[in-house]
């Protein structure tokens, strides 16, 4: 039985209810969405000793990875926006993993410069809009404009903080990934895993999940359709997310 079921919590409108935890996101520019859920369910956690979530927002990825990882694994989450980082702290405190998840309210560039901790897994649902696209608010612009964290800076920070054998996982629109992958390769990253995601069976991919490594090995390619031809959630998507979605 899930943590939420044990406490008989009802569904709330200020966030997203999962099987074992609740994510409040009403004070966050970016809400819980399919991109983050896919990444949190997909990122490899086997043999992980310490995890870092860059640009954590509400803390969704940190919480999903805390649920999936072994009880000894520490999870750190870094978020620049003060309102979002505070809400993330509250979400962590209310979760079953409050004792092993820590939120840092700071810029990842400063965080990387001041710490020597090596992480075996780093995840990020990073900014990808170029400047000039209207996002509706300054906070949302910060969360989604690459001016707040360029992909080059993100790759550099991850390189500083990742263990030699570790993985750095991101989710990106297909068109953005086409530029991100060559940039990563220029900075001595190698694509180890690549999952192309489509909205429905038979349609072109619209998102790409990448697992990058500092070590060159054969890349494993895969694909996933969120919905089948009948527009129902596909069996692959259900299998990937069944530990999180309430009604899977």
Automatic annotation (TrEMBL):
It comes from the Bacteria. It catalyses: adenosine(37) in tRNA1(Val) + S-adenosyl-L-methionine = N(6)-methyladenosine(37) in tRNA1(Val) + S-adenosyl-L-homocysteine + H(+). It is found in: Cytoplasm. PROSITE patterns: N6_MTASE (PS00092). SUPFAM superfamilies: S-adenosyl-L-methionine-dependent methyltransferases (SSF53335). One of its GO terms (cellular component) is cytoplasm. Its EC number is 2.1.1.223. It holds the Pfam family MTS. Gene3D superfamilies: Vaccinia Virus protein VP39. One of its GO terms (biological process) is methylation. The keyword NADP does not apply. InterPro entries: DNA_methylase_N6_adenine_CS, SAM-dependent_MTases_sf, Small_mtfrase_dom, tRNA_Adenine-N(6)_MTase, tRNA_adenine-N6_MeTrfase. Residues 47-172 form the Methyltransferase small domain. GO terms for molecular function: nucleic acid binding; tRNA (adenine-N6)-methyltransferase activity. Keywords: Cytoplasm, Methyltransferase, S-adenosyl-L-methionine, Transferase, tRNA processing. Belongs to the methyltransferase superfamily. tRNA (adenine-N(6)-)-methyltransferase family. HAMAP family: tRNA_methyltr_YfiC. Specifically methylates the adenine in position 37 of tRNA(1)(Val) (anticodon cmo5UAC). This is tRNA1(Val) (adenine(37)-N6)-methyltransferase. The lineage of its organism: Bacteria, Pseudomonadati, Pseudomonadota, Gammaproteobacteria, Enterobacterales.
């Amino acid at each position: 039985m899930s943590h939420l079921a044990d406490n008989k919590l009802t569904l709330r409108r200020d966030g997203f209810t999962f099987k074992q935890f609740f994510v409040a996101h009403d004070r966050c520019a970016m809400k819980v969405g399919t991109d983050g859920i896919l990444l949190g369910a997909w990122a490899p956690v086997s043999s992980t000793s310490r995890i870092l979530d860059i640009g954590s927002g509400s803390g969704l990825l940190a919480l999903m990875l805390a649920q999936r990882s072994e009880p000894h694994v520490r999870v750190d989450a870094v978020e620049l926006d003060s309102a979002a980082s505070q809400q993330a702290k509250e979400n962590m405190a209310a979760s079953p993993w409050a004792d092993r998840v820590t939120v840092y309210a700071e810029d990842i560039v400063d965080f990387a410069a001041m710490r020597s901790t090596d992480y075996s897994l780093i995840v990020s649902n990073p900014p990808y809009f170029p400047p000039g696209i209207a996002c509706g608010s300054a906070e949302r612009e910060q969360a989604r404009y690459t001016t707040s964290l360029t992909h080059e800076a993100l790759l550099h920070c991850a390189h500083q903080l990742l263990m030699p054998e570790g993985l750095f996982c991101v989710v990106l629109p297909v068109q953005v990934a086409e530029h991100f992958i060559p940039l990563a390769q220029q900075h001595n990253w190698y694509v180890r895993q690549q999952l192309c995601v489509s909205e429905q069976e038979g349609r072109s991919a619209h998102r790409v999940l990448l697992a990058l490594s500092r070590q060159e090995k054969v890349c494993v390619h895969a694909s996933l359709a969120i919905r089948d031809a009948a527009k129902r959630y596909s069996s692959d998507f259900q299998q990937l997310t069944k530990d999180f979605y309430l009604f899977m």
